[in-house]
Amino acid sequence: MSTLKPKQLALIVLALAVLGGWSFFDAFSNVGYGPKQPIPFSHKLHAGTNKIPCLYCHANAERSRHATIPAMAVCMNCHSVVKTDSPNIQMVTKLYQAGKPMQWVRVHREPDYVYFSHQWHIARGFPCQRCHGEVQNMEVVQQAKDLKMGFCIDCHRQNKAPTDCNTCHI
Fold it and tell me: To which H or E segment does residue 40 belong?
């Protein structure tokens, strides 16, 4: 059995460090990530066909840093009378009546060290599709953009927004 020479060991350590760093910095790209949800929910039907505005369901985006998942009451505004015989809607109704939230699986996220505010971007008039893609055409919501720093910096430069570190990093 042969032993590793110091140069070989250094190369292996370097390769592992590079792969580990790449994995860390690429962890938030997630392009194409569209997890299975507790019930099927079609943004294509709701936002596309029925033309329900994003901010109807994600109303907190106008006044908060987070868009948030809609409260069950928002779903029930329509589904107390629409498709009430659907097993999925019956599940929503049951959760609503029990005062429990739907356990949706989050699709879009940034690292903890990034401060992003939906409120600021909506106030500037940016459409949700700029970062989230053509959600109104998605049967299953998927992350359409890489949402890494380069994506944000490019947008900030194009729109003459600040690009200093303190703009987004807390």
Answer: none
Distance in Å from the first CA to the final CA of the chain? 51
Q: Token pair for residue 110? A: 């940034």
Q: How many CA atoms lie within 13 A of 148 on its CB side?
A: 12
111: its two tokens: 């690292």
| Residue among 164, 20, 30 nearest 109 (CA) | 30
Q: Can you tell me which residue has the tokens 């998927």? A: 142
Alpha helices in 27-161 (DSSP H): 43, 54-57, 72-79, 87-98, 118-123, 129-132, 149-158
**Which pair of structure tokens corresponds to residue 138?**
């998605």
pLDDT tens column, 83-127 = 999 999 999 999 999 999 999 999 998 888 888 899 999 999 999
**pTM, to two decimals:** 0.76
Bridge partners (DSSP) of residue 169 are 114
Amino acid at 137: N
pLDDT, tens digit, 9 for 90 and up, residues 5-14: 777 767 777 7
| Coil, helix or strand at residue 71 | coil
Provide the token pair at 75: 């779903």
Q: Are 30 and 149 in contact (CB under 8 A)?
A: no
